[in-house]
């Protein structure tokens, strides 16, 4: 990774904290693209069919560094975008509901000059990938979701499963104003490192990559990032009984009609396996469920080789089975 060393006490900027190289990987092309009324930072490696990767909380595009190298080696154009309000993308005052965020994603596909993409999403990025596949199915060639159930399944689990409600205590903690943002950036983003470590499986908890955690901590401390990164979760909870939330839930009744690979860590403490399993009922296409034993909420970083192998093999399979 290459980034200038900032002066002590200087707030990080997107240029220094986000536009990074992939350690030991291929050269990364960084650029900005316009989509859905905003500007989005993307990192790109390789040539071939487009695979667009969507990060989750509390991370940014760099979480996909291992998969980008593997995808490029396999003959794909791997592009990881920073979601609205995060990393090097615009921090707009509004627009953090999932329908609009999904239009960001499909708008980036168009801005990249591609007719469609295989979408790969983790956590919040997975929630948006599900949504984009429903809202703009012609732009989604294949769908890969990690550590996130279908939005209707997520809503049902949050309302009816006490175990899932407890596991998602951080989302409830995001609901008050101001205080959650202050906690995220306190002590140079220490909470970010703690959350990633706590939500990972034992192999990470027993030997956390402090350098990688420092990258995520610094990115969260870019001004306004903490606020923007938790706004989608505020909408998800506060809208449950509002007309816009009910309308979104009805909209998501439409089935996913693209081949779908659903990946999950068996020890995920944030999204329980029983909450994620069963999302296939919303897919009217080949659907494959893969559970990684011994991994937590970040399987793509906890065991990147296994995750990348599963991803590439499935993308190359001309007839993925159900």
Short key terms for the protein model shown above:
322 residues; alpha/beta; 15 helices
Description:
Helices cover 43% and strands 16% of the residues. The chain has 15 helices and 8 strands. An 8-stranded mixed β-sheet has the order 1-2-4-3-5-6-7-8, with helices on both faces. α2 (65-73) packs across α15, α3 crosses α4 and α8 runs antiparallel to α10. 49% of the residues are buried. The model is unreliable at 1-8 (pLDDT under 50).
Radius of gyration: 18 Å
The SSE order reads: HEEEHEHEHEHHHHHHHHEHEHH
Strand order of the largest sheet: 1-2-4-3-5-6-7-8
The first-to-last residue Cα distance is: 39 Å
Mind describing the biggest β-sheet?
Answer: 8 strands, mixed
Average pLDDT confidence is 93
Spans of at least 5 consecutive residues with low confidence: 1-8
- In total, the number of strands is 8
Which band does the percent of strand residues land in?
A: 15-25%
The backbone outline, from C-alpha atoms, is globular
Judged by helices, strands and strand pairing, the structural class is: alpha/beta
Approximate helicity band: 40-55%
Number of helices: 15
Topology (elements, then pairings):
Layout: H1 14-17, E1 29-35, E2 38-45, E3 50-54, H2 65-73, E4 77-81, H3 98-111, E5 117-122, H4 124-135, E6 140-146, H5 151-160, H6 162-167, H7 169-173, H8 179-199, H9 202-205, H10 210-220, H11 225-238, H12 243-251, E7 260-265, H13 273-276, E8 287-292, H14 299-302, H15 304-316
Helix pairs in contact: 2-15, 3-4, 8-10
